[in-house]
Amino acid sequence: MAVHHLKTLGHVLVLNGPNLNLLGTREPEIYGHTTLADINAWLEKRANEADVAIEFYQSNHEGALVDKIQEARGNVDYIIFNAGAYTHYSIALRDAIAGVEIPTIEVHLSNIHKREEFRHTSVLAPVCLGQISGLGAFSYMAALEAVIDRLAKKAEAVATQA
Length: 162
What we know:
Layout: E1 11-16, H1 28-31, H2 36-49, E2 53-58, H3 62-72, E3 78-82, H4 91-100, E4 104-108, E5 130-133, H5 138-161
Parallel strand pairs: 1-2, 1-3, 3-4, 4-5
């Protein structure tokens, strides 16, 4: 887990749920050959360029993800979250996101709407800022770019008021 604490534009937590630690080898015809470490390195490079602190966490355990979301309260400006299979049924994660009131962007590598019927529904989406799916690893980068844009606009507004 990498955490960078500098005088930054903001702080982003990138959360990954079950089986995402297997990226690169798990069903590459669906998820590609890019590993989670590759994605994290790419995001970290972009966050550093934008002066945004970024932290990464992956767990196969629902409760650990709930704990991490709760720990983020008051410490993180945005969450980028690929909940994996939990997307479709974890009311606990949904309630954690709603409870901490941290803007969260749901991401998926594959287009969940083009896959099995049970993957079409996200119980997280109603409490998330937005959802990005189907763009492979770029789904994460698109989410980070949206966060950077929002943080920059907020900083600009604060500077204008000062």
